[in-house]
Amino acid sequence: MARLFDANSTLKRLRNRYRLVIMNDDTFEEVVTFKLSRLSVYIMFSTVFVLLVGLTVALITFTNLKYYLPGYGTQTQRRELIFYKTRIDSLERSMIHKDQYLENLKKVLSGNLKTTALDTITLEIQEPEISTH
User: What is this structure's pTM?
Assistant: First the structure.
């Protein structure tokens, strides 16, 4: 178990050198030879990944591709969107009130009114005292 987590052996394995040879299959001639280690391969792939991500972000940020992203727009488009949204909300509220009015008007004209009990409690209002000075 101690061998699995030994930092020296891990570092040694990362620094071991390997040879990558690309050969012509017909003539068995070596076309290209690379001397690599695991560490150099990790560093190379990490560098390529960071560069690709950076280029992609730069391409989207500094070109017109950003307008194709959902939720991104100019400030005037956002102001127009807020204006139209509030306008639609107020129109919707107005339409609901008109529908309620028409529904109540239909009930009154057809005579289908629900009668409610009237408040028959008498109120005793005291007259204010007028002082004569």
Answer: 0.48
**Could you read off the pLDDT tens digit of each residue along the chain, which spans 133 residues?**
445 567 778 888 888 899 989 999 899 899 999 999 999 999 999 999 999 999 999 999 898 888 788 877 777 888 898 999 999 999 999 999 999 999 989 988 888 877 777 777 888 888 877 776 6
Let me know whether 2 and 62 are in one domain: yes
Please check whether residues 65 and 30 belong to one and the same domain: yes
Domain count across the chain:
2
The verdict on residue 130 lying in a domain is no
Cβ(13)–Cβ(31) below 8 Å: no
Report d(CA 93, CA 52) in Å as an integer.
Answer: 50
Query: Are residues 52 and 4 part of one domain?
Result: yes
Q: 18 CB contacts (<8 Å, ≥6 apart)?
A: 35, 36, 37, 38
Q: Which residues contact 3 (CB under 8 A, 6 or more apart)?
A: 9
Structural domain including 86 reads 74-109
Whether residue 25 is found in the same domain as residue 15? yes
